[in-house]
Write a structure and sequence with these properties.
Elements (H helix, E strand, L loop, with lengths): L1 E3 H4 L9 H10 L4 E8 L8 E11 L7 E6 L6 E5 L9 E5 L4 E4 L2 E4 L3 E3 L2 E3 L2 E2 L2 H4 L21 H4 L4 E7 L11 H14 L24 E4 L7 E8 L8 H9 L7 H13 L3 E5 L7 E6 L5 E3 L5 E3 L5 E4 L4 E4 L3 E2 L11 E8 L2 H10 L5 H8 L6 H16 L2 E2 L4 E4 L6 E6 H8 L5 H10 L3 E6 L2 E6 L9 H12 L18 H19 L3 E2 L5 E2 L16 E2 L10 E2 L4 H12 L6 E12 L13 E12 L1 E3 L8 E2 L2 H15 L6 E6 L4 E9 L4 E8 L1 H6 L6 E7 H7 L16 E10 L4 H11 L4 E10 L8 E10 L8 H19 L2 E2 L1
Parallel strand pairs: 13-16, 28-32
Antiparallel strand pairs: 1-12, 2-12, 3-4, 3-6, 4-5, 6-11, 7-8, 9-10, 14-22, 14-23, 14-24, 15-22, 16-19, 17-18, 19-20, 20-21, 25-27, 26-27, 29-31, 30-31, 32-33, 33-39, 34-35, 36-37, 37-38, 38-39, 40-42, 40-43, 41-42
Helix pairs in contact: 5-12, 6-7, 7-10, 8-9, 11-13, 12-13, 14-16, 19-20
């Protein structure tokens, strides 16, 4: 937001330079990005001086040029060739001396010593439009006799430089979206730092109703959306160009002047943060202003000429027959003021931020008014700003105030009552601030001290501070005015600022696994938690109704919270493939969000909502490419499964304590799941279904695994790392060739084997699968290797044979297996 340095000084007195003001505002939380010097007239009339024409003769080689000598006040007259028809001896004129830069729109040119048709010219006698003080070009400027030669033109025309401070307003600081709002904060800073200062706003005591000739009723049908609405009429106005002082104020901060009435409303908005709207009273049919909504689908043409379809939640300012303005957002095409307007109705209102925000987003509109209404303006300044605007209209456009102020308001908004203790102030700030200093700061911020005792204060916080409703908010305000630089940060942070227990352990393990994955060739990615709800259309495992939808989405592509990390990773894969990088390994840690309607509880608003912390792994493209030592090899699901198992092993998860099985899931073409013995899902791993790849125009296989990190942390909660000496006794290997039904998975063989021998069986692995010739229909052959070891003695054949017999018997009984 642009803040004028000179405009700021109208409300608060100070002697700081623009750079010092910028530093002060930044120190109290109103970060100022830049300070730029500007002039109301481009170039600031530098190099132009007042001169007196001593002589004026016809040019010897031209029938329209003149040769003049001009006194510039230094005792050395200069010769200037001038083509203006009205130049004459004895005139006081404005002269651009040699070296002066003049501007014409975006172009500029420098005055140089030159010869014009053989006669030397040392400057230029100027017309109004040539120096930017007017539009006249019929002749040179002729000044009064009182003008003194040698006077700089910028002094004669009282040209003052101004400085524009670019202040970055955070969304919570609605109170600072105006010059007076910034002045309030600067005033508090100046008081705290020992400067002599004062804060004041223009008086409206001169406001008075002069007649009742133009009485317009105000009816507010929707009090929720419009808690306060005020209006007044002014008759006999003349709509015309604004005076220079008003145009200059607006131009400096980047606002284009339009006419005196509209410029007044823009002036009030940027001065006090109160949006106003001015209606042509002749267009208010029926003599009534009605604040209401219109039926769904109603048409309304806004000031930009666009016809818009209204929602039944769009608040409108209407007359008895039709809408005139989208409340707090944008005016209508036919109801605003024009040069033909003679009677006006001024509106000053407080609209509910949520209503304005939804309407503005729904129509894709972002105006200076909606920017402020969305954040919450001061509901108690509507009448003050209305009176000030009416007085300015009388001053700049003439006319008379022709009605009482119609102020529809059930009751003024009360101050927020906040209790704050000195102990908590000291605890949060980390320094004991004297009670008198605390009281001085809160008073300078216009907070009323309602009660006081040795323990603390009870404060009345003004309604325009919508961001200060808790004691911690007050403490933040105290700290920013007291000065962050005045509080020493301890070299050792207290334990309350560090993570402990399970959370700390989880963070350490995340770093451990991240390092392991990076070492395996993965790259970490970070995607937006907001995603496109349409990704979940038609899914049963991740149904659309389980998505957490955003009430105020930035776009249709970011209108829901993600249920799975998959789609964000596919977006990243598509982005890389489109840039000739197709061999990819990604991983991401992030939250997934869920809404379950069946858990709704009127007393617990958040009951239906939950979030889970997940780890996603993506694998696509070639595992080996262009290697002299190895043929090209595609990445596979088996490779990804190995990475998942490595993660489990690194975390200390005993693979015998989990259940691996086939998974049917919307996300995968084929997949496995990993559960705890208690049924908690730890991970899924599989090949992504083509229907999802087509959404991103991906034409290569993608393998994906998603681990529930929170459940993993629970599963390894009791795991303790222990160390023991490597066994001295040899490992015994036995191989089995098993004939089984085709639907039997290796995981089932593995599970039975470990259940049969829990102590001596160290590893079960699959080294061959055969289907086809010489096998019965519907059968396949698994070649399985088993490693047995006793860490205390050498195994003999008797023990080994006993284990193998028992294992074969269990495989036969439970899976129908036969030895080949």
């Amino acid at each position: 937001m642009n803040i004028s340095y000179n405009w700021l000084k109208e409300y608060v007195t100070f002697d700081l330079s623009p750079e010092e003001v910028a530093a002060a505002l930044t120190s109290i939380g109103l970060e100022t990005g830049s300070v730029e010097e500007v002039q109301t007239i481009r170039g600031g009339l530098e190099g132009l001086v007042i001169g007196e024409v001593l002589t004026c003769e016809d040019h010897p080689n031209s029938d329209h040029l003149h040769t003049t000598t001009v006194d510039l006040g230094d005792g050395q007259p200069v010769q200037i060739v001038c083509g203006a028809p009205n130049v004459a001896a004895g005139q006081k004129v404005v002269v651009a001396t040699v070296g002066t830069t003049l501007y014409s729109g975006e172009d500029s040119f420098v005055i140089r010593k030159s010869k014009i048709r053989g006669v030397e010219s040392n400057g230029m006698i100027c017309a109004e439009d040539e120096i930017g003080i007017g539009t006249g070009h019929e002749g040179i400027i002729v000044l009064p006799e009182t003008a003194v030669p040698g006077t700089p033109a910028k002094e004669y025309y009282h040209i003052k430089s101004d400085y524009v401070l670019e202040v970055d307003i955070t969304p919570n600081r609605a109170d600072a979206t105006s010059h007076y709002g910034v002045a309030r904060d600067l005033y508090a800073y100046l008081l705290q730092n020992g400067y002599e200062t004062s804060l004041s706003a223009p008086s409206v005591e001169d406001f008075k109703v002069e007649n009742q000739d133009l009485d317009i009723d105000v009816i507010v049908e929707n009090r929720e959306a419009c808690p306060r609405y005020a209006g007044v009429t002014v008759s006999g106005v003349t709509v015309k160009e604004s005076p220079e002082w008003l145009q200059d104020k607006l131009r400096v901060i980047g606002v284009r002047p339009i006419n005196n009435v509209v410029d007044i409303t823009n002036y009030i908005l940027h001065a006090f943060g109160q949006p106003l709207h001015c209606f042509d009273a002749g267009e208010i049919k029926g003599g009534k202003v009605i604040v209401r909504t219109l039926p769904e689908g109603s048409s309304f043409t806004t000031l930009d000429g666009v016809e818009r379809k209204l929602s039944d939640r769009d608040l409108m300012i209407c007359n008895e027959e039709e809408g005139m303005c989208i409340a707090g957002v944008f005016g209508g095409l036919d109801s605003g003021t024009t040069e033909a307007t003679t009677h006006i109705f001024l509106e000053s209102a407080y609209f509910h931020p949520t209503w304005v925000r939804k309407t503005a987003r729904g129509h894709g509109l972002n105006t200076d008014a909606s920017f402020r209404f969305e954040r919450g303006i001061d509901p108690n300044q509507t009448v003050y700003c209305l009176k000030l605007a009416a007085l300015l209209v009388k001053e700049l456009a003439g006319g008379t105030i022709s009605s009482e102020i119609k102020d529809v308001c059930e009751c003024p908004v009360e101050d927020f009552v906040v209790s704050v203790s000195y102990d908590k102030i000291s605890a949060l700030i980390g320094k004991e601030i004297p009670a008198e200093t605390v009281k001085k700061i809160v008073s300078s911020l216009e907070m009323k001290i309602l009660r006081e005792d040795p323990a603390g204060l009870v404060l009345g916080v003004p309604p325009y501070r919508v961001d200060v409703q808790r004691d911690v908010d007050v403490i933040e305000d105290i700290l920013r005015i007291y000065g962050y630089n005045n509080v020493e940060i301890p070299s050792t942070l207290s334990s309350g600022l560090t993570t402990k227990g399970e959370e700390d352990r989880s963070n350490k393990l995340q770093n451990l696994i991240s390092e392991q994955l990076v070492g395996s060739g993965f790259h970490e990615i970070l995607n937006n938690s907001q995603t496109r709800a349409a990704y979940y259309d038609g899914l049963t495992d991740y149904p659309p109704e389980r998505s957490v939808m955003l009430l105020n989405p930035l776009s249709s592509d970011l209108n829901a919270m993600r249920q799975t990390l998959l789609f964000g990773g596919l977006e990243s894969i598509a982005y890389n493939i489109n840039r000739q990088s197709a061999d990819l390994r990604f991983f991401e840690f992030g939250n997934c969000y869920f809404y379950r309607a069946e858990r709704r509880d009127p007393e617990k608003v958040l009951a239906p909502y939950s979030e889970e912390y997940h780890l996603g792994l993506w694998l696509t493209g070639k595992r080996v490419q262009n290697s002299w030592a190895h043929a090209n090899e595609e990445s596979s699901i088996y490779e990804l499964k190995a990475y998942v198992e490595d993660i489990f092993l690194r975390l200390g998860l005993d693979m015998r304590s989990v259940v691996v099985g086939n998974l049917t899931n919307d996300l995968y073409a084929t997949a496995l799941s990993v559960h705890t013995r208690g049924g908690k899902l730890l991970a899924t791993c599989g090949i992504v279904a083509r229907r999802h790849l087509r959404l991103f125009d991906i034409h290569q296989q993608v393998c994906y695994a998603e681990l529930n990190w929170k459940e993993l942390m629970k599963a390894i909660r009791k795991v303790k790392i222990s160390y023991k000496e490597i066994s001295k006794y040899p490992v015994v290997r036995r191989d089995l060739a098993l004939l089984l039904d085709k639907q039997v998975q290796f995981a089932e063989i593995e599970k039975i084997a470990y259940e049969t021998e829990k102590k001596l069986l160290k590893e079960v692995s699959l080294f061959d699968v055969y289907e086809g010739k010489n096998l019965e229909p519907g059968k396949k052959s698994y070649a399985v290797s088993l490693l047995l070891q006793d860490e205390e003695r050498t195994l003999n054949d008797k023990i080994i044979d006993k284990i193998m017999s028992k294992l074969i018997a269990n495989l036969e009984n439970k899976l129908g297996a036969r030895l080949r």
